[in-house]
Amino acid sequence: MAVQTPARQGRTNPSGASGRATPPGPDVPMVSLLGVDGVRVEDPEYAFDGTDADIVGLLRDMVLTRRLDTEGTALQRQGQLGLWPPTLGQEAIGAGTMRAMKPADMCFPSYREHGAALIRGVDPLDLMSLWRGVDMGGWDPIATRFNRYSIVIGSHPLHAVGWAMALQAEGATGTGGPDDAAVLAFYGDGASAQGDVNEALVWAASYHAPVVFVVTNNQWAISVPTTRQAVVPLARRGEGFGIPGVRVDGNDVLAVQAATETALDRARAGEGPQLIEMFTYRMGAHTTSDDPTKYRSHAEEERWRAKDPIDRVRSYLQHTGAIDDAWLAALQTETDEFAADLRARTIALDPPDFADWFDVVYAEQTQELADQQQAFRAYAASFEDHAAEDHAAEGRAVEKQEGRR
After folding, report:
1. Most exposed of 8, 28, 226, 330 (fewest Cβ within 10 Å)?
2. Which pLDDT band, with edges at 50, 70 and 90, does 402 fall under?
3. Domain assignment of residue 151, yes or no
């Protein structure tokens, strides 16, 4: 398929290079490799090196992610989950970043990276059990190279930098060998103002750590727009720390993967950290306890709906003949079966035994925790005894009342 250069909106890169449009605001070029219309475009610095077969795989990743997400929302509405943070509209970021990672790389996600978790090998039931309150996020971060969710906003970039510094100390990065590893850390536009995030940037820059910071700018920190949070693009936030940054069309999965691969390659080669601003939109609510109609307009949502990350990839692949209606029908069947299986397994989860949580604080339980666990079990049992007594008393009262009749 011929590569075309799209008409660019607003201000553009002064170099006139194709595929780098900048939204209204401070001049920062935005990497784009696949237009909203599904037409491939060129960028002077970044290129997607995969085949159409690879893009088909990315489409499948995104469609499964969306089905996982919509199922999570539905289960929460049915009372099966306590809460769910939707990732609707941000599927390209999870797919593109994870396909750019190598097996030895480590990921530190925010709590909205459901697609990234799925692609990295986390059982989606583990995600559901976390939001159902059955466990504390019990997938194995070492086996999956995907750390557990951190609900504390902006705390995990520090963990990511610590892991990256450990790679340096162990000689597991920057050697020029095929097994060199790097770290990827996600956080959002709202978290970019947190002190922990800025401390992480300081440490990463000072120690030239092999870490890539992915800032998911979905335009809203709950109800606060990005335009109120920062006066310069988030891609430039790293400059004061000595960390290069780039803004990427976060709804363009090809651009996401290309930019992430480049940044991770730099990190593995010992060239230090990088910051990537993924410019996207949170199509859903902040969480299922949020009502976005209270603070943003339907017209705004519709403008972004036209930039749907799945639609543009589907259009491209249909135009090239890489997929057809039969393939799409098969994918629909796969996602239906995926959702049905996940739904059934989620509903079948046993209620948690809260005493078990004392077993997972450390790798090995301490005596102090064992004592606390025993005390907790005795405390919980006392309520069961009182409940049995209350039930018996109610029964005697009913019998007495019936005897008077």
Report:
1. 330
2. low
3. yes
Burial class (CB in 10 A: 0-12, 13-18, 19+), 152: exposed
Instruction: Looking at the structure, tell me whether residues 284 and 369 fall in a common domain.
Output: no
Closest CA to 26 of 275, 226, 175, 240: 226
> pLDDT tens across 97-116, in order?
999 999 999 999 999 999 99
Active-site residue (options: 99, 112, 282, 312): 282
Residues spanned by the domain of 388: 354-404
pLDDT tier, 403 (very low <50, low <70, confident <90, very high otherwise):
low
Residue 298 designated active-site: no
> Are both 227 and 334 inside the same structural domain?
yes
User: What's the pTM value of the predicted model, to 2 decimals?
Assistant: 0.87
The b-or-e profile of 289-328 (16+ CB within 10 A means b, else e) is: ebebeeeeeeeebeebeebbbbebbbbbbeeeebbeeeee
- For the chain, the domain total comes to 2
Q: Is 237 a catalytic residue?
A: no
Tokens 């990088």 -> residue: 274
The active-site residue, picked from 20, 67, 99, 286, is: 286
Task: Let me know if residue 9 belongs to a domain.
Answer: no
- The DSSP element (H or E) to which 124 belongs, if any, is helix 124-132
Query: Is 370 found in the same domain as 281?
Result: no
| Residues 255 and 187 occupy one common structural domain | yes
Tell me whether residue 286 is one of the annotated catalytic residues.
yes
Catalytic residue among 295, 303, 379, 386: 295
Question: Would you say residue 159 has pLDDT above 80?
Answer: yes
**Are residues 258 and 369 located together in one domain of the fold?**
no
- 285 and 395 share one domain: no
Are 379 and 233 in the same domain? no
In a domain, 132, yes or no: yes
